Amino acid sequence: MPSKLPRLFVKSPLLPSAEIALDRDQTHYLANVLRIKPDSYVLVFNGSDGEWCARAAAVGKKSMTLVAEHQTRPQEEGPDLHYLFAPIKRARVDYMAQKATEMGASVLRPVITRRTIAERVKVERLEANAVEAAEQCGILRVPEVRAPQRLDDVLNAWDPERRLVFADEMAATASPLEALASDTSRPHAVLIGPEGGFDPEERDLLLERDFVLPISLGPRVMRADTAAVACLTLVNAVCGDWR
């Protein structure tokens, strides 16, 4: 059996001898791009049953069936970390969805702010980017992708038990590690604003909430996608599964 096997996210339950019918895109990728033959092996995961080694039982040009044979890794949950972001240009949103998935985000939430330019968000595209990132980087879950909501609606419905880490460009430059270390027992979420930052009234709305923790990302102004990676790294290092 090859040491490096193709890896796919599937929606079927995974257990010994379970049959897994692949969709058309997955079939095209395995049969026509990778030239998978009958009795070849593929790694599959569904976000709840761990990772499994599956055998290609029936291979056609438009359909393929796999049969799960044995579990290669048990399910790992990862950190309880939500990632909220104001949508930006499509290619950079794709990048953010991929990197947030790789860094262990459990939920992706587009948030519409007053300065948000790209208000049309395709949830299906975010899901596809999250799946691709999970397949490639070896993690065992794909984050839940939620429909876009306006910032005030998000804050009004917020569970105060979850701390919302807000990357605040106007915060005094200080150690974000020290700020995050003040409470590592609660679940966390990261909020990254739009290009140009939050409207002053939105910033005030955030700062008046007890569950919001503003942090500085240093003296340089970062692009939104760079700030996302930086902030998720800090939270994982102090409060997540990098400890």
From TrEMBL:
Ribosomal RNA small subunit methyltransferase E PUA-like domain: residues covered: 22-67
The keyword Methyltransferase belongs to this UniProt entry's keyword annotation: yes
Transferase as UniProt keyword: yes
Record Gene3D superfamilies: 3.40.1280.10, Hypothetical PUA domain-like, domain 1
Ribosomal RNA small subunit methyltransferase E methyltransferase domain boundaries: 78-235
Any one annotated GO CC term: cytoplasm
GO biological process: rRNA base methylation
Matching Pfam families: Methyltrans_RNA, PUA_4
Top-tier EC class: transferase
Protein EC: 2.1.1.193
Function comment: Specifically methylates the N3 position of the uracil ring of uridine 1498 (m3U1498) in 16S rRNA. Acts on the fully assembled 30S ribosomal subunit.
Organism, scientific name: Methyloceanibacter caenitepidi
GO MF, one annotated term: rRNA (uridine-N3-)-methyltransferase activity
This protein's UniProt keywords: Cytoplasm, Methyltransferase, rRNA processing, S-adenosyl-L-methionine, Transferase
Matching InterPro entries: Alpha/beta_knot_MTases, PUA-like_sf, RsmE, RsmE_MTase_dom, RsmE_PUA-like, tRNA_m1G_MTases_N
Catalytic reaction(s) noted: uridine(1498) in 16S rRNA + S-adenosyl-L-methionine = N(3)-methyluridine(1498) in 16S rRNA + S-adenosyl-L-homocysteine + H(+)
Superkingdom in the source lineage: Bacteria
Name under which the protein is recorded: Ribosomal RNA small subunit methyltransferase E
Annotated compartments: Cytoplasm
Family to which the UniProt record says this protein belongs: Belongs to the RNA methyltransferase RsmE family.
Taxonomic lineage from the root: Bacteria, Pseudomonadati, Pseudomonadota, Alphaproteobacteria, Hyphomicrobiales
